[in-house]
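Extended Data, panel c. Modelled sequence:
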Amino acid sequence: MRESSLIQPPAWARALNPTSAPSPAVGLWRLLRPLLFRLEAERAHQLGLLLARLTPPALVARLGTKGEGPDIARAPALTSRVMGLELPNPLGVAAGVDKDAEAVAFWQALGFGFVEVGTVTALRQPGNPRPRVFRLPRDGALINRMGFPNDGADVVATRIERLRQQDVLRVPLGINIGKSKATPAEDAAADYRRSFERLGELADFVVVNVSSPNTPGLRDLQTVEQLRAIVEAVQTPNQALTRPRPLLVKLAPDLADADALACAEAAVEGGCAGLVISNTTVDFTAATTATEGMSGGLSGAPLFARSTALLRRLRESLGSGPVLIGVGGIMDAASANAKLAAGADLIQMYTGLVYGGPGLPRALLRALAAARQTQA
């Protein structure tokens, strides 16, 4: 496999890669962001999660809609049915924002149409040593080398069971699963299966993550042979469910197009509903900030061009059947619309939320709704 054999993205994608200026902050985030950015990045994220858990979701939703008129997050023009799921809108929270499913009600109150939690591993693990998250404000980007820190499948499952019992969820919930760091590569398929057996029935869809650059050897699983084994291992308990869950595979943007297509075809042949395109990149050349000596995965605006070009390539090759979730560099309305135009059925954000703030989801949804009304 050719790990960094990247193809030059087309001009339309390069034009929407705003690496020369910080991403816009929406509303009060213009005032709050400079204060939070004085904190170390992961500490600020943890503070944000704490506030998300403590803030009543009804208050969040009321502030988001300003108490006036219908909620844009549930506008009829934005609703869709994907993977057999009813979604109020196509914008979701990407994996990594809420690894342990601690603030799901908050994310749906912000206006997101679906939420993906994780990455969750079969075994509880602390992740890599700190510091392990770094901001690149000039680029609207992050570099992380987290290494899947999470509470483990049992704890996260218990948390989601409580949400289900309380009937809190109003949008589809996806669970992203990855390989435990302590599990040898030869036992990877069994490790993914254990995670699914504990979490699968609690999810509306499940994402198999074989593409994080921060767990040693994980990206080596992005071969047709390895991927087939993992998908088969997960599908065995999945197909035994009364209602099998849609499975998706999350791929890296650093794969050559031919390798990504081969993996995508193997996933679809194994019964997967589709792909998440893409994870973070280990290629830092699109960033203008000096990154010498840094390691991990780059997300945000510099990732947009490559991830969107790969998304478009897979849509052209796979046709309209498989579901494609586009993630990577969605920072504003233009980049959100470009992902959808490139062939995404649904889109997700993470880094855009860090820079744009909690008002960004509904701001994007208003722009998407306006665009659809213009096209109608």
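The mean pLDDT is 90. This feature is highlighted in the accompanying rendering.
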